[in-house]
Amino acid sequence: MHDLRVERTVAPGRCWNAPHPIDVSVSRLGAYCTAKSAMTNCDVAIVGAGPAGSSAAIALARRGYDIVLVDKQQFPREKLCGDFINPINWPVFENLSVAERVLAQPHSEVSGFRMTAYSGEAAETSFKSAPQRRAIGLGLRRALLDQVLVERAAELGVSIRLGSRVEGLIKTERAWRVALGTEEILRAKLIIGADGRNSWIAQQLGMNTSSSTHGRSIGFQTRLRAPGAAQGKIEIHLFPGGYAGLVALGDGTVSLGLAVDRATLPRARIDDFLFTECLPQNPHLRIILSRSERVAELRSAYPVYFSRRRCYADGVVLAGDAAGVSEPISGEGVFFAMQSGLLAAETLDQALRSGEVAADYLRRYEQACARAFRRRFILNSLLRMAIYRPSLLTPLIRLSEKNSRILSSLVDRVCQPQAVG
Ligand SMILES: Cc1cc2nc3c(=O)[nH]c(=O)nc-3n(C[C@H](O)[C@H](O)[C@H](O)COP(=O)(O)OP(=O)(O)OC[C@H]3O[C@@H](n4cnc5c(N)ncnc54)[C@H](O)[C@@H]3O)c2cc1C
């Protein structure tokens, strides 16, 4: 039986859980400062070195700021993700100057989309042709992608602290103090919380709502050795209560990502239930699973989806999943993360130049995200509504078996790259 590893960030024992940290006296920082504590000054401390944090770090370092990028894990690190790199990411990779390095990693090329219903229907379409590689998505392990981005940040002079969990956060009159588990204190003018869906920063600053800590579905991911599966396509297979995404990774394995309605899951032996009862309800998945072997542990994340949080406070913005997540069905999570990291960098650059770091000023970041992502958010909401309602999707799949026009135009909307500023 494989481990069920929940990727939730658990507030560590040493952290200070005061509901309104900003109002509390600086003297509390003494709890973190020991004789051994080192103090590092920086313009911006970025918590989380996933795509959101690394992209923000790259963009700010290019503008000449002193940046410290912190992650609690050592890299390269495994990351629960469907591992589909949507073609919409190319303009962002080019902007960050990492496109060639991304392509140098083991990967598979993905030029189309296939969807199956558990009643057996299957439909597929190709990505619309676009200039050069921009029509191609990738199957690429997140451990590799995130490592490429962190290396790019380091190359631009970003100070990287891996294996350093952020455990304390205090606002002083002029700066934030960020306490790392390694006994280092960062004194930063501004903070970017890019620490993922269970953001510790959002929790500390009271930016959570009940919807951002609870959700309908649980996400799972593992890798399979499944000869011949998902060749050249990202595949979505529906089953009662959820869906599975399958993409080849170019190393002889495929990534299997799941979103499963938690009401359908048993209390124990979830792993057995998923692989022997739940997924085989889709006949296409049943065949793939019968010919495959699991080569990685099953990881889990919760919640899969929540609506966006307020993503600014005095001297702080949230980026990527920390600000809000998308339903994984569209494979846009990495794009939203990197693009929001770039938008955060733009706002913080303006804030540092003008000396305006209060929440009122930083609100413009949330407005910029709303403008940039509005159409994608609407589409994502529609997809989320449909994906758990087979009565809506199965007729579309049936129709698309004969005429793929509707499916093609939907896939184009999700996968067509746009220019990045
Ligand atoms: C089942 C599933 C499948 C998915 N499939 C896809 C897909 O195929 N394609 C796609 O584009 N997106 C997909 N996504 C979404 C995608 O994984 C996320 O949107 C993306 O990882 C967000 O990046 P991020 O940088 O915001 O956060 P993350 O990648 O989660 O990075 C956050 C980082 O913060 C660090 N951290 C957390 N707390 C602390 C702390 N206290 N101190 C220091 N560091 C800390 C963590 O270690 C982590 O490295 C999927 C999501 C799910 C649930």
What does this structure look like?
The protein is an alpha/beta fold and 421 residues long. It has 2 domains: 8-77 and 143-212 and 307-379, FAD/NAD(P)-binding domain, CATH 3.50.50; 84-99 and 107-138 and 215-305 and 383-415, D-Amino Acid Oxidase, Chain A, domain 2 (2-Layer Sandwich). 33% of the residues lie in helices and 24% in strands. It has 12 helices and 20 strands. The protein has helices at 51-62, 90-95, 99-103, 142-155, 200-204, 210-213, 270-278, 283-290, 333-354, 359-387, 390-402, 405-415, and strands at 4-6, 38-47, 67-71, 84-85, 108-110, 112-116, 122-126, 137-139, 159-162, 166-171, 176-180, 184-193, 217-225, 233-239, 242-248, 254-261, 293-294, 298-301, 312-313, 316-318. Strands 1, 6, 7, 13, 14, 15, 16, 17 and 18 form a 9-stranded mixed β-sheet that branches. A hairpin with a 2-residue loop joins strand 19 and strand 20. Helix 1 runs parallel beside helix 9 (333-354) and helix 9 runs antiparallel to helix 10 (359-387). It is globular and about 60 Å long. 49% of the residues are buried. The chain binds flavin-adenine dinucleotide. Flavin-adenine dinucleotide (FAD) is lined by residues 9, 47-53, 70-73, 79-84, 86, 165-166, 194-196, 200, 219, 221, 257, 259, 301, 304, 320-322, 325, 328, 331-334, 337.
Topology, please?
Elements: E1 4-6, E2 38-47, H1 51-62, E3 67-71, E4 84-85, H2 90-95, H3 99-103, E5 108-110, E6 112-116, E7 122-126, E8 137-139, H4 142-155, E9 159-162, E10 166-171, E11 176-180, E12 184-193, H5 200-204, H6 210-213, E13 217-225, E14 233-239, E15 242-248, E16 254-261, H7 270-278, H8 283-290, E17 293-294, E18 298-301, E19 312-313, E20 316-318, H9 333-354, H10 359-387, H11 390-402, H12 405-415
Parallel strand pairs: 1-18, 2-3, 2-12, 3-9, 6-14, 12-20
Antiparallel strand pairs: 4-8, 5-8, 6-7, 10-11, 11-12, 13-16, 13-17, 13-18, 14-15, 15-16, 19-20
Helix pairs in contact: 1-4, 1-9, 9-10
Bound molecules: flavin-adenine dinucleotide.
